[in-house]
Amino acid sequence: MDWMWTGQYAEKMKTAVLNNEWGTIAQLMPQIAMKFSKIQVSDNHRLGKPWAGAFGRLTLSASKG
Fold this sequence. Notes:
The protein is an all-alpha fold. It is 62% helix and 0% strand. It contains three helices and no strands. The protein has helices spanning 5-18, 22-36, 54-64. Helix 1 packs antiparallel against helix 2 (22-36). The N and C termini lie far apart (28 Å).
């Protein structure tokens, strides 16, 4: 239940990104950051490059439907 908010923010962010609504993105980012403020990631955990190519995949999935 703690993560139910993610779906709502994800949809809002997806719409804003695909429509170049930078004002909406600027409003959403601090709200999302507050949700992650208490999360600590270990120094030994390496995330790699999870965002590499993400915009291309997002636009491709949006064009498919």
